[in-house]
């Protein structure tokens, strides 16, 4: 049985709507060589691009009484945008016998961790539907050693497209960049193409697998004559958001983004929950009954984050093409 402090730590990591009964996980999964709990954090991105997320994560830990290097240890593994490295990095964390593995903001990393271990608890935090991605069996009974939170940001794609169309009613060709490594990319693209067709637009799609693909991807969309842009929630693009914002400004392309951090970095409009806030937030559901603690499976309940935010900025050079009225309510 875990002590109260350990329970508090593990419950914290879920983020936006914790979904855990970690006491139900096997004792072997909690074995460790370190005198303090070791949280293995598996990242697709880079330390620089994820700095905001990790600051929020550490703040959440501190508010719960846990400080890295004092009573908890954080062991980071960075793939630097190379999804093919994630399984190798997950195996490293398994060999270290970490207390649990956290995959903040990325479904690809969560799938790599799932493939690496069936005993060490895994906590994911993602904007992707974990059932559709094949990560868990269901939201209320994910099974095995994995649990976490999905704030369903991908499901807001059609809404973002609609907002962009309202802002730019004369736009007829929209651009989208996606990462084909994500298991839900095909479904998201299909949904967005249908949404674009329904409002009389065409959707041009470019793919990026690594950060080096970003410049040619934007250039290919520009060559196809896009007049506005939107992006699918993705850790690779999130880490490269400053570069992408610079490229779009160079081509004078208005765009809408999936989280508040994009607008904070200078993006035009964002619609969706804040990634950093989801990671920092502490809400959890304790075990419903003593029988749940006896089962060697996780109990889980994911829900969309209902506090989706929007930020609408109208730079002077674009005011002539924006309608005077916009239904997107600025948050600041």
Provide an overview of this structure.
By secondary structure, this protein is α/β, with parallel strands linked by helices. The chain folds into 2 domains: 4-153 and 275-294, Rossmann fold; 154-272 and 309-318, Response regulator (Rossmann fold). 33% of the residues lie in helices and 16% in strands. The chain has a 6-stranded mixed β-sheet with strand order 7-6-8-9-10-11, sandwiched between helices. Strands 2-1-3-4-5 form a 5-stranded parallel β-sheet, covered by helices on one side. Strand 3, helix 4 and strand 4 (122-126) form a beta-alpha-beta unit. Helix 3 packs across helix 4 and helix 5 runs parallel beside helix 6. The longest helix has 14 residues, at 185-198. It is elongated. It starts with a helix and ends in a 20-residue tail after the last strand.
State the strand order across the main sheet: 7-6-8-9-10-11
Q: What is the CA-CA span between the terminal residues?
A: 46 Å
Treating each run of at least 4 consecutive H or I residues as one helix, how many helices?
12
- Run of helices and strands: HEHEHEHEEHEHEHEHHEHEHHE
Q: Quickly count the domains.
A: 2
Label this structure with key terms:
332 residues, alpha/beta, Rossmann fold, 2 domains, 6-stranded mixed sheet, 5-stranded parallel sheet, 33% helix, disordered C terminus
Summarize the structure.
It is built from twelve helices and eleven strands.
Blueprint (SSEs and pairs):
Elements: H1 4-13, E1 38-43, H2 51-63, E2 73-78, H3 86-96, E3 100-104, H4 107-116, E4 122-126, E5 146-150, H5 157-167, E6 173-178, H6 185-198, E7 202-207, H7 214-223, E8 228-231, H8 235-239, H9 241-250, E9 255-257, H10 260-264, E10 269-272, H11 275-280, H12 290-294, E11 309-312
Parallel strand pairs: 1-2, 1-3, 3-4, 4-5, 6-7, 6-8, 8-9, 9-10
Antiparallel strand pairs: 10-11
Helix pairs in contact: 3-4, 5-6
């Amino acid at each position: 049985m875990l002590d109260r402090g350990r329970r508090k730590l593990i419950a914290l990591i879920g983020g936006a709507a914790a979904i855990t009964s970690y006491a139900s996980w096997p004792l072997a999964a909690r074995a460790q060589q370190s005198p303090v709990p070791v949280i293995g954090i598996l990242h697709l991105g880079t330390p620089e691009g994820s700095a905001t997320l990790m600051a929020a994560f550490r703040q959440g830990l501190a508010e719960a009484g846990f400080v890295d290097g004092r009573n908890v240890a954080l062991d980071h593994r960075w793939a630097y945008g190379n999804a093919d490295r994630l399984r190798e990095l997950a195996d490293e964390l398994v060999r270290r016998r970490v207390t649990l593995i956290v995959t903040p903001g990325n479904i690809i990393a969560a799938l790599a961790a799932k493939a690496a271990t069936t005993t060490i608890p895994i906590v994911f935090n993602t904007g992707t539907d974990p059932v559709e991605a094949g990560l868990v069996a269901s939201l209320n009974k994910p099974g095995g050693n994995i649990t976490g939170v999905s704030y369903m940001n991908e499901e807001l794609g059609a809404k973002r497209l609609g907002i962009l169309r309202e802002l730019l009613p004369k736009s007829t060709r929209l651009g989208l960049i996606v990462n084909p490594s994500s298991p839900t990319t095909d479904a998201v693209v299909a949904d967005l193409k249908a949404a674009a067709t329904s409002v009389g637009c065409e959707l041009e799609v470019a793919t990026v697998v690594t950060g080096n693909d970003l410049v040619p991807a934007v250039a290919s969309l520009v060559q196809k004559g896009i007049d506005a842009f939107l992006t699918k929630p993705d850790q690779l693009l999130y880490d490269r958001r400053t570069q992408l914002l610079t490229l779009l400004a160079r081509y004078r392309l208005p765009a809408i983004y999936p989280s508040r951090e994009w607008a904070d970095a200078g993006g035009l409009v964002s619609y969706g929950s804040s990634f950093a806030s989801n990671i920092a937030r502490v809400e959890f559901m304790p075990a419903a009954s003593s029988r749940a603690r006896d089962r060697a499976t996780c109990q889980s309940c994911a829900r969309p984050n209902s506090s989706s935010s929007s930020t609408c900025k109208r730079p002077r050079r674009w005011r002539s093409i924006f309608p005077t009225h916009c239904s997107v309510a600025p948050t600041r």
